[in-house]
Specification:
heterodimer; A: about 180 residues; alpha/beta; five-stranded parallel sheet; three-stranded antiparallel sheet; about 30% helix; globular; B: about 250 residues; mainly alpha; MetI-like fold; 10 helices
């Protein structure tokens, strides 16, 4: 996926000025950079939520699995319903729930979950949707180190040969799993 | 059970206060005691006119509430689609909200029969409250979840169940409950002014004209009881609806 000559501004603040980069297909792409450098803005542009920009994005992606910085769960739906709402598929979600270690919590409501658990539901939802690309904004930041160690390899194994774009501030995570690193200054 | 006992006790205390006040004022023709009023109410309950008047008034008010509810809902939905539609309807809503209801009673009664006037007045009471609450509910829908729906291309039917209904329902319920009481008050007031042939309003008007204040109090008590029963039924219905569709919406 090629992003060419991207320009984006919020009022007088220029976020991108003729920015060009590439996201490698079927790889784990990490997007890194200081706060306020435009990482989330780039994810919003790529996911089609922000169309007010100049430049071109060479991609024919139809199906995007997204994990926002916040879990964004429907408060009246159980975990299972929150995951299933994104797809008409009748497939089992047991394996996905096992990966995010929520296999015993499918019937709980979001208000009964901790911040980290909610984020794992958001991850499970993205996995169940099975998009052409996975766009994730700091998806593992709310998890403790032990859980990260167990969960991240399982997720990447499941997403083998998928295009993944992740924003992260955890340099160890980036070094360990990143196959292509995109820096924004 | 405890709640019912408490309510009965509170009602009883107020009846005692009423009784003491009537004894102190000691003008039974102008300020009758609750005993006289209840006796008269039971006498009225034995007449067919009572049921006819009650049914006609009840029917008109319910019809007005229903139309007000549906029109408020429909216009709120329309206005949420576009700001231009909202701007178009704003003057109409401002007029409905600020014009004294008596002015509408006289104006509408010039063109349509008194029965229709009552219905129209109830619509005017319910419509702006329902409209304002539902519109508020719709535009207050969680923007983050809307974005999520957009990226995941969640179909409208699912959005309705998971996002819009739970978001709008509390506004809808509270607007409905607060407008019911107002519709009853305005509906009966309009009946007193328009005096349709068969209505609670004309009974109140006649009782006042012929200084039959025991009748007047009995009819007022009827209105209060009917309004309370109706509100209670609606509250129970709304609770049932919210339990079925909102607490655990099925997708």
């Amino acid at each position: 996926m090629k992003i060419e000559n991207l320009s984006k501004r919020f009022g007088k603040k220029v976020v991108f000025d003729d920015y060009t980069t590439e996201i490698l297909d079927n790889k784990i792409n990490y997007l890194v950079g200081p706060s306020g450098s435009g990482k989330t803005t780039l994810l919003r542009i790529l996911s089609g939520l922000d169309k007010d920009f100049n430049g071109s994005i060479d991609s024919n992606l139809q199906k995007i699995s997204i994990v926002f910085q916040e879990p964004r769960l429907f408060p009246n739906l159980t975990i299972e319903e929150n995951i299933r709402i994104v797809s008409e598929s009748e497939d089992s979600i047991d394996e996905i729930l096992k990966i995010v270690e929520l296999e015993n919590d499918a019937k709980l409501l979001p208000k009964e979950l901790s911040g980290g658990m909610k984020m794992r539901v958001a991850l499970a939802r993205a996995l169940f949707y099975d998009g052409d690309i996975f766009i994730m904004d700091e998806p593992f930041s709310a998890l403790d180190d032990e859980l990260k160690e167990r969960m991240i390899p399982k997720i990447f194994k499941l997403l083998k040969n998928k295009t993944i774009l992740i924003v992260s501030h955890d340099l160890n995570e980036v070094k360990k799993y990143g196959e292509h690193i995109i820096e924004i200054n | 059970m405890k709640k019912a006992l408490k309510t009965t006790l509170i009602v009883f205390i107020w009846l005692v206060i009423w009784l003491v006040a009537s004894l102190l004022i000691n003008l039974p023709l102008l300020f009758p005691s609750p005993i006289d009023v209840l006796v008269r109410l039971f006498q009225l309950l034995g007449t067919s006119e009572f049921y006819l008047s009650t049914m006609f008034s009840f029917g008109r008010i319910i019809l007005g509430i229903t139309i007000g509810l549906l029109s408020g809902l429909a216009i709120a939905l329309l206005c949420s689609i576009s700001k231009h539609i909202y701007d178009f309807f704003m003057p109409l809503i401002a007029i409905v909200k600020s014009t004294p209801i008596v002015a509408f009673v006289f104006l509408v009664n010039l063109f349509v029969g008194s029965g229709y006037t009552i219905v129209f007045i109830c619509v005017l009471m319910v419509f702006p409250i329902v409209f304002a609450n539902i519109y508020q509910g719709i535009i207050g829908t969680d923007k983050n979840l809307l974005e999520l729906c957009k990226v995941y291309k969640i179909p409208y039917k699912k959005r309705l169940k998971a996002l819009y209904l739970p978001g709008v329902a509390p506004y809808f319920f509270s607007s409905l409950l607060s407008s019911i009481g107002l519709a009853w008050k305005a509906g009966i007031a309009a009946e007193i002014l328009c005096t349709p042939r068969i209505s609670i309003g004309i009974e109140i008007f006649n009782a006042k004209t012929y200084i039959e204040y025991i009748d007047l109090f009995a009819w007022i008590l009827t209105v209060v009881i009917l309004s309370l029963i109706f509100e209670l039924v609606v509250t129970k219905l709304l609770k049932l609806l919210s339990n079925k569709f909102l607490t655990k919406a099925e997708v």
